[in-house]
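REQUEST FORM: STRUCTURE PREDICTION
Request ID: SP-0412
Submitted by: Lab K.M.
Chain count: 1
Length (residues): 111
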Amino acid sequence: MATVDECRDAMHELAARLAGNAEAQSRLDLERSVACRLTDLGTAFHGRLHNGQLVDITDGDDPKAKIALTLKSDDFLALVRGKLDLTRALASGQMRIKANPFDLLKLRKLL
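STATUS: Completed
RESULT:
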């Protein structure tokens, strides 16, 4: 099981990767609140997607988040580091994403 600090760092790694991908995609128009819920740690992080970039990352959950990822801490680290495929994780039940289907399509372009 990963630590909260490792997951917080991974959240910032994800933000950096999204920022780089947003530049390549000419900044997708995607303004949404995002939550990442880590079930095995009983903690969460949240932030905001602004022009395809993840900003304002903070500890704690956002129950009103438009996009919410729910998974275990080790799976989150593997996902961020490219060792876990998003589609396979969803199909196998390793993670859940609550989001509008159109948001998922836009988000997929950033990942």
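NOTES: The mean pLDDT is 87.
Reviewed by: T.R.
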